[in-house]
Structures are given as C-alpha cells and as structure tokens.
Here is the input.
Amino acid sequence: MGKKKTFTLKQLEKLSAEEVINKLQHENYSLLETFGAGKLRREMVPVGKACNAAINYVFNTTGPKNNPEKHRKAARKRLVKLLAKITPGKYDKMPRDQESGIVVGFNHPSLGEIGRILAMKIDIMGDKPMYFPVNLPWYEALAPNYDRIRKLGIIITPTITPSTWKKMSLKEGTWQYEQGNKLKRGFRNIYTKLSHDALKEGGVIFVAPSATRQATVFKNKDVYDKKEEIIPTMSMLAVRLYSDPEMECDFLPMAVIPPKNYKRGLNFGKKYELVPGKVMTAKEIRKKYFKKKDTKKLDGFDYEFHKRIADNLPKEFWY
Here is the structure.
C-alpha cells in the first residue's frame, strides 16, 4: 500500500467521522500519523500483518469461490479451527440460544482474550450481527481488510480509548487537539448507533468496562470498596440504548480467566476460559438501576456489573 497518507487541516474540518473512517479503510490514510502519533501505528504493524495473513488464509484456502455465501461460511469454520489452535479458548458455558440482543462486558487483562472471544462468537453465535469497537492503532492495522472481516460476521469500528488519547499527547488549543476531540466523539456516536441497530436485530456487542487492558476487574481496592468512583462505561452505554423504550437487550458479565503466567500480549497456544456471569436483563436494569425513573442516570449498575464479573474469577483478579 505504500507510505500512509496524512490528513490536512482543511480535510479534517470538512470530513465527517464516517468519511474519515472510509479513508482509513480504502485510501491508505492514517489519523495517528496526522496527529504525530505514528509510533502507535507502527507498533501495531506486526500484529496487523499477522491478523490480516490469517484472514486472507481462511478465504484463499476455502471455497466454493463461485458461491459467496457458502464461501463465507466455509471461511468462518476454517477461522474457528485456526483460532482454536493458535488462540485456544474454553467457552462451553456461554449461552448459545439468546434470542434478544446482548451486551457482553468482560475483564481485559491482555490482548489474548480478543482472539478467543472472536472464535467464540463465530462458533456459537453464528450470524448474529456483531459490532466490535477497536482502538485506533488496532483499527488502522486492520482497516485494509475491513471488507473481509465483515464477511466473517465481525464489523469493527474505531474508537480512541483514554489510554491512546493520553499517548497521543495532543496539546490543548491546537488544531490537532480540536479535531482529535471531534473525531473521538464522532467515533463514539457511530459505535453507539451501530450497537443500537445490531442489538435491535438480536445481535451481540462486546465491551471492556475498563476501556483499556487492566490486570484486574476493579481498577484498585478503593474502587472495589466504593471509596473511588468507577468508570461509568457500562451505564453510559445502557442509558443510550435504553433511551429507546423498545430496546430489550440484556447485559451479560463475562469473566476472562487467562492462563497461568500469561503476559499482556496474545499468549499463543495457551488456553483461556470465558465464563458467563448472571445475566442482567433489560427488565431488571430498568426496574432496579435507573435512579428514580430518571432515564439519564443509572445508580449502582457499573459496580454490580463489575462484581458479577469478579464473582467468577480468582480473588487475585478482583482489584
């Protein structure tokens, strides 16, 4: 593809978040390079190449090529088998016949669980529509293969996490900072809209409540002891989804149990376990957590969600 292109100030001022995403996918542009954070993009190049090679392999070695639907299903099966070898996971307890849409929130100790979660989704959740928020460095690495990833039933959409925003080191008052902030909001709005549509169709979305890799469910003991505020990731999403009175999606806390001596990376060949917690239904959430029927605020929901993840983990992963 050659050297990555950068956006000009005039371009970013005129382009919508959707148009920026299209250029990342199809025209070899890089926001990270534009914002002077090319190092973050380059760090993901090896991982991106490995992921893209795996995706190309499953499509190039399956058929029939003259029947797109059968070809897609064959590629999905081959990908599940491939992932079972290189990123093995145990997920036999996960629900298979969930009719309504479902939000799966999981602890995020490493990168390794991502491969296991994708394999699980493709394997037991079939054609359920799925949208996966992908941190911008990851997204830029995977964007060239967006169309093939979509054929596998996985629709990725970019997000700028707090950790990446901090690493970008944009100075307040600069055009990079202003445009970055605008896109951060734009990406979040796109993801919320896509998630809403997917869940209305009985789909599934996966969310890490910590919004970044974190060894424990709760950030620290003060958060667990309710002395420090918890990140309101899950409640913010729930409020937006349930603003639609017809939304009936459930929230499922899922514990990721990594292998012994795991590292922050992909932990190839080591088995992870994905364990579902007690489902929080739309009816339960609306009745129990909306504060005095105020549809703009949830009370205690984030803490309870985190606790239901922790309940299925060894205590060393709690805080």
Notes: The longest strand covers residues 250-257. The chain has one domain: 9-317. The mean pLDDT is 93. Residues 9-317 form a domain with the Glycerol-3-phosphate (1)-acyltransferase fold (CATH 3.40.1130).
